[in-house]
């Protein structure tokens, strides 16, 4: 598989490319399915997860399928009262803010994500041998931010306030979330995913010192406790220029890089031991073929320089997820272009 | 004035401190004024601008007043149809997206910001000799993002799409916005402000390469065209770790740094020629006195190391603006603490 080769220092048969959020709102076939089904319903229905995961693979000829899911899926499965509201995102009925709240957080029983394990079986039956299936989980910090704030946040005020004012409570919460994430990822790995991506989407809100003190130990435990499967572990966040080295040191095999840091620069920052993934600005897909061509070629060149600097490989991707209004034909042409260079 | 001394390599009589958004929603006396007056109405009423600007100076004993205004004030004054909607922010009636839109952008007549010039006169009458008055303006990129998107944005999709797809149109728009910003700042400088701060709040959404190509020439022109006044020019943005050197090179005397980059590290990145301003995470003010004490002392130490590395000085501030729910007494105590160290 080209993606696995690039992630592990091998020689891929073609330049691997996939797009974060390739399954989702940019595709009319996805919107057609979702017209009659809520987000959480879709995430817990094996055949819908399979179908939605496969849609972009069929359409775009990408080198990986990313399991269709949501960061809060394992929390919901564990029994946290939450919903995903269109136009808002996750809404937590009772935000977690006290020692009592943390003590009452449920544990994730692997059986409660059985539908996701079954979906992975269905997807693997459909995927060809060259296309990797990437498992999906949110990292403890990003999960904590949703649980504490009660939903998406701009400033993470309550989250950081807990972190700074009550480190003991903070670490207790992060430990429980790490447990949930480990169970969710091991379930996916048992079901046969070829790689996993740990999404610490909002870690970029932190300084490196705070990341190392309050987040790294828990993300490190998550990545360590799935290492026995021997599959590549991709670690991703947005606005993480200051954190790339720390986010690699916690145990990543592939480090996701957003568009703010050139890939060759990223490879230098992390010491060149891992593969780099990224990093086209998702807005470039709105700017026409000439701009796409120019930026894709620049990123491919920077990825090649990253490998010269010692990176294990380069997996082409966006710097963040596909934006909702993106023309899917542009995505298809971008994949073709990456494969053609 | 301690702030001016720190900005220019002098020896301040005490450690200067002010807080971005110190005038505003954190203060009950501000909310009392605003209960009966809209945001734009407040920004164009000389006595209200003076009163709101002075409120935090009286309460907190800070070393600078920041002119109470909003980034879109000069656009409104020039005749752009816009409003500031509570809970949303600026809303532009007709977003600027075509060559025709750009061609019809109005020019700012200094007389249309006469109320702001008069407010500055009133403020200078009230301020003592040790407290600096800082003028306020948005930088062309941040202004462009509001005009193009039609309001606040999460991804700047339309803004960046114009930048990537039609550089000529982009530069034409940025040139007109630079003109407006220059006129607005020169009006404030003519009225006697002691320093200016150019807010490129959202520049951190860009890579350094894009910043240098699409933004730097215009911000450089703004800063050059106010240099004859010989007052310190502070340049600020959020999430600008990758841009600090470029944002300094455009002509800043003081570089604002958010909480993601330690001040001594920032001083190294920008080559130590300028002063550094920052960089307490605004969420720390919610975390109790112990956390505030710890973070303030760390930042003071990093600021001192920045000066050792060649920075002209350190102005204590937040890494971004005061958050709305901040307890004003915590701000007062934080100022006392900074002055006591």
TrEMBL record, chains A, B:
<dbReference type="Pfam" id="PF01208">
    <property type="entry name" value="URO-D"/>
</dbReference>
<comment type="subunit">
    <text>Homodimer.</text>
</comment>
<feature type="site" description="Transition state stabilizer">
    <location>
        <position position="70"/>
    </location>
</feature>
<keyword id="KW-0627">Porphyrin biosynthesis</keyword>
<feature type="binding site">
    <location>
        <begin position="21"/>
        <end position="25"/>
    </location>
    <ligand>
        <name>substrate</name>
    </ligand>
</feature>
<keyword id="KW-0963">Cytoplasm</keyword>
<dbReference type="InterPro" id="IPR038071">
    <property type="entry name" value="UROD/MetE-like_sf"/>
</dbReference>
<feature type="domain" description="Uroporphyrinogen decarboxylase (URO-D)">
    <location>
        <begin position="134"/>
        <end position="150"/>
    </location>
</feature>
<comment type="pathway">
    <text>Porphyrin-containing compound metabolism; protoporphyrin-IX biosynthesis; coproporphyrinogen-III from 5-aminolevulinate: step 4/4.</text>
</comment>
<keyword id="KW-0456">Lyase</keyword>
<keyword id="KW-0210">Decarboxylase</keyword>
<comment type="function">
    <text>Catalyzes the decarboxylation of four acetate groups of uroporphyrinogen-III to yield coproporphyrinogen-III.</text>
</comment>
<feature type="binding site">
    <location>
        <position position="201"/>
    </location>
    <ligand>
        <name>substrate</name>
    </ligand>
</feature>
<comment type="similarity">
    <text>Belongs to the uroporphyrinogen decarboxylase family.</text>
</comment>
<feature type="binding site">
    <location>
        <position position="146"/>
    </location>
    <ligand>
        <name>substrate</name>
    </ligand>
</feature>
<dbReference type="InterPro" id="IPR000257">
    <property type="entry name" value="Uroporphyrinogen_deCOase"/>
</dbReference>
<protein>
    <recommendedName>
        <fullName>Uroporphyrinogen decarboxylase</fullName>
        <ecNumber>4.1.1.37</ecNumber>
    </recommendedName>
</protein>
<feature type="domain" description="Uroporphyrinogen decarboxylase (URO-D)">
    <location>
        <begin position="16"/>
        <end position="25"/>
    </location>
</feature>
<feature type="binding site">
    <location>
        <position position="70"/>
    </location>
    <ligand>
        <name>substrate</name>
    </ligand>
</feature>
<feature type="binding site">
    <location>
        <position position="320"/>
    </location>
    <ligand>
        <name>substrate</name>
    </ligand>
</feature>
<dbReference type="InterPro" id="IPR006361">
    <property type="entry name" value="Uroporphyrinogen_deCO2ase_HemE"/>
</dbReference>
